[in-house]
Amino acid sequence: MQELLDRDQIVSILEEHGLQQIFIDTLKPHLRLYSFEQGELVCSQGDRSEYLYVLVKGKIKIFTTSPEGRTLILSFRTPLEIIGDIEYIQKRDIINTVEAISPAFFLGIHYRWLEKYAENHAPFLKFKLGIITEKFYANSHAANFNLMYPVEVRLASYLLSVSVGESPAGFAGQLSTEELSDAANLIGTSYRHMNRVILKFSEAGLVERKNGYVRIIDREGLQGVASRNIYE
């Protein structure tokens, strides 16, 4: 993580995303701009929660880890997204781990400034409520999607979610065998069945699997299979 000490850039970001009325003048001096490299953790499950982060550029992966060490990917998010909102409301430690799967930029502000200046600020409360309800909607929709659609559609959507940018091979790094196990958990299928679907995609020229990694070859064709990107 790197803090970018450029107040003009923060002002520009607030204007770009229409956040001027959300973060009022008393909050703006306490806003910070942070950058995270691809693969860097923004926060980790179980850590103390002190900051509210607003994703303004890039893509992140949100996942949880069981006491046995099993990882379950919950979702992928793009701007605008808030990290630390539920923890702020519930006064809890970090619930899930958040990882940048592309270079990502966040506005960050310590909870104490929100408690001091934004507790009764209606635009901020409305913004926060909108983000939280969108999360619930997306999670509910994804659960229904897993029940209603075949594995081919779910896997195609997953592969599109973990890809970055418009490049056909635009993965954030590479999709490893370990990450495929996470994918099987997310889309609700067995690792063996998912391998069969990957082979089918490979034979159709949609993806390439080589040396334990998978990359998209035909992004447009994969979008045709997925219809829409459900996991974002």
Describe the structure.
By secondary structure, the chain is of the alpha+beta class. The chain is 41% helix and 23% strand. The chain contains eight helices and twelve strands. Strand 5 (60-65) and strand 6 (71-77) form a beta hairpin. It is elongated.
Task: Provide keyphrases for this structure.
41% helix; 232 residues; five-stranded antiparallel β-sheet; 8 helices; alpha+beta; four-stranded antiparallel β-sheet; elongated; single chain
Short summary of the structure?
The chain has 232 residues and is an alpha+beta fold.
Mean pLDDT: 85
Q: In angstroms, what is the radius of gyration? A: 19 Å
Which residues sit in consecutive blocks of at least 5 with pLDDT less than 50? 166-173
Q: Order of strands side by side in the largest beta sheet?
A: 1-2-9-4-7
Helix content: 40-55%
Counting helices, strands and paired strands, the structural category is alpha+beta
Instruction: State the end-to-end CA separation.
Output: 24 Å
